[in-house]
Amino acid sequence: MIHSILTNPTYTGDLAQGRSRVKSYKVHEVESVPREEWVEVAGTHEPIIDYETFDKVQALLQRDTRTSPKGREVHLFSGFLKCADCGRAITRSVGNNNNVYYACSTYKNRSRTACTMHSIKHNRLEAAVLFAVQQQVHLAVSYSEMIARINTAPVKKSQSIRLEELIASKERELAKISRYKQSLYQDWKDGEITQQDYRDMKADYERQTIALTDVLARLNAERAELANGVKSEHPALVAFTKHQNIDQLSRELLVELIDHIKVYENGNISVRFKFADEFRRIAEYIEINTTKPAVAG
Question: What local confidence, expressed as pLDDT, does residue 272 receive?
């Protein structure tokens, strides 16, 4: 019941119907329905909580935050740490003198030949993640200042050579597959390939067509977004710039800003921040508008 309440978008002011159904008239068992099959209408009534809070709760629910049988506290990094090699969770342990450290769950619980320890002490991990967050905050502040200057200029550029070349390349690939697919039927009729080869190759071309169409849709959407420009109040920038004076990590901050943290065998870490794709597009917008054209000579 609690899980049902926490995942119900109705509390954000949106109508959400069809979240569950009875399996059949013979089996009176209720099953959950995937969200993509729900009927949702935004803004139908007064919200109880805002979208930002609701989204934070959904992000938390997707993380593994199990505690020990006697434990009640969800620790700072629970659900965020991954082994850089095997991809499984890095789990918390308490050693001698109550020193807290983290190590690969595969190594600890499954097989010491399947992975290595990937150990890191809590204090070192916390300091490294805090430094990474501070650097990302500094980057967001710098981006905001540069975008503010760009947007006051009389002319703003939005055409990305990278995007244009990618789109053109994918369109050529799609046209080539379309030609191959059109000639395939005639090859079968002429006896150059078997019926089974025809079916297999046709299915493969159709899969490639779907994949390329999806890629082109994403690239064109990115181009359209870039054409609209970037505001210094972009949500990705705001999410970080509001933490300019950060000097300590919190569970709430990690949920808001970090997707996951990888721990390597040598004790190094890499932090995957949320809004990574947005930051890349913002960086490209800045580069387009700050790079001087080459002078022929």
Answer: 95
